[in-house]
Design brief:
The chain contains 4 helices and 4 strands; from the N terminus they run βαβαααββ. By secondary structure, the chain is an alpha+beta fold. It is elongated.
Length: 117
């Protein structure tokens, strides 16, 4: 299966369970890998035959910047749902890093894989 990636989307949002995390926006870094069949787009050179990753990025941006999730797991689920709303996406892998969340670690992260039921 082919894949389209959105890599290192750096955004800020309210995320976390502790009071200090609920006051100020924090950095998150999002990576999305969308599994899809790109053969038709490769032949036609037509946007209608592929996943419009710009529109998916815009939907993720809107979700994240207005969100107030406690867990990055929940944020990842919502991002996966955005990607899977495009019928051309068969499966999605979402990775979210939360830089500076753990002392002595570059980041903490979660990765989920979701597909069509």
């Amino acid at each position: 299966m082919d894949r389209i990636f959105i890599r290192d989307l750096a955004l800020r949002c309210i995320i976390g369970i502790y009071p200090e995390e609920r006051r100020e926006k924090q950095d998150v870094v999002i990576n999305v890998a969308m599994h899809c069949d790109l053969r038709a787009a490769g032949r036609s050179d037509d946007l209608n035959d592929t996943v419009d990753y710009k529109s998916i990025k815009k939907a993720i941006l809107k979700l994240v910047e207005n969100s107030r999730f406690q867990l990055i797991e929940s944020l990842a689920e919502h991002i996966a749902a955005i990607a899977l709303a495009d019928e051309k996406v068969h499966q999605v892998v979402v990775t979210i890093d939360k830089p500076g969340a753990l002392r002595f670690a570059k980041s903490s992260a979660v990765e989920i894989t979701r597909g069509r039921e």
